[in-house]
Amino acid sequence: VMSILLHGDAAFAGQGIVYETFHLSDLPSYTTHGTVHVVVNNQIGFTTDPRMARSSPYPTDVARVVNAPIFHVNADDPEAVVYVCNVAAEWRSTFHKDVVVDLVCYRRNGHNEMDEPMFTQPLMYKQIRKQKPVLQKYAELLISQGVVNQLEYEEEIAKYDKICEEAHARSKDEKILHIKHWLDSPWPGFFTLDGQPRSMTCPSTGLNEEDLTHIGQVASSVPVEDFTIHGG
After folding, report:
1. What is the CA radius of gyration of the chain?
2. Whole-prediction pTM value?
3. Which domain holds residue 37?
4. Under a CB-based contact definition with an 8 Å cutoff, are residues 13 and 3 in contact?
5. Rounded CA gap, 124 and 117, in Å?
6. Under the phi-then-psi rule, with left for phi > 0, alpha for psi from -120 to 50, and beta for the rest, what region is 146?
7. E strands along 42-105, which residues?
8. What is the pLDDT of residues 154-210, one digit of tens each?
9. Is residue 182 situated within a structural domain?
10. Which of 105, 134, 164 is the last residue of a domain?
């Protein structure tokens, strides 16, 4: 078994659980035999600039508490990332100690549907919009080296798109959710024979639909007249 943890940069620097996890790496009566920590470092915590979120230059500095080696790698270079990940796996396998891979990258879109990064990070996001996506960059490199040609690249993209489109189409046909497919040991008596929960009913929440509609409309309305609200 190999323990691999995936972190965001702001979470890695700011969550106590990360510090606690490092200290599980080498206890006398309990050990993980080393964890590979992969930090997806998109250089922004939700909307916060790193300078405003932590006091150390790197989000990975917390790993120094157990002297874990830290590899900072440019995520725009897939081959370098694979190389570093192999080194990290070998380190962990050989020395049974934690190791950190810091994928220095960027986030092209917002943190979620509510987040428009151009509001809080306009300079950074002007740069990101000019940046070639990593797939395009790597494809151009391989084509220039003669490893693949343009047609092969386009065929691979089409093949992948087809897989996604077919899965999307299949998802619309799914009428029954087979809980037993992903639950290892369903509790006896909880499901019916075909793996469905015995009851899908839920008790009254105590509010009628009119009240809920009223609250929803008030919450989603603009209190001032002639006020243009941002579409996002």
Report:
1. 24
2. 0.72
3. 1-105
4. no
5. 9
6. left
7. 70-74, 99-104
8. 999 999 999 999 999 988 887 776 666 666 665 666 667 666 666 666 677 788 999
9. no
10. 105
